[in-house]
Amino acid sequence: MFLTYPAGSDPVGSIRAWLTGGYSAGAWNGTGIDSSAANARNTAPSTPLYGLGYADSADGSGVVTPPNTILVMFTVEGDANLDGTTNTTDFTTVSRNFGAGGTWDTGDFNYDGTTQLADLLILTRNFGKSA
Prior knowledge:
Layout: E1 2-4, H1 12-23, H2 36-42, E2 50-56, E3 69-76, H3 88-97, H4 117-125
Antiparallel strand pairs: 1-3, 2-3
Helix pairs in contact: 3-4
């Protein structure tokens, strides 16, 4: 889903808050932007974790989106660049941003605001998996 906004009025803070509410500790059934598909898949044993990732054209993360646009995408958790798979590119993103305030496209896959060990564990659990 692409959300286009007028220049100078980036709503990424609101989108992130709604995604954080929907994330609901990985259940993806909370209040906000949730995902019944991620919720159903995440309850099956031995499957990759799925969720909704996002990238904002204004943050310069390298995820290609049109100007003044936020991309929200169903993907495997750990897919920082939203290409549909977890790989060394995503690992590099987490490594580069480790310990810093985070967004999905900088490696904060559990929506707690920081790229840290919990995010690295999500990535390693899903390494090599595709959405």
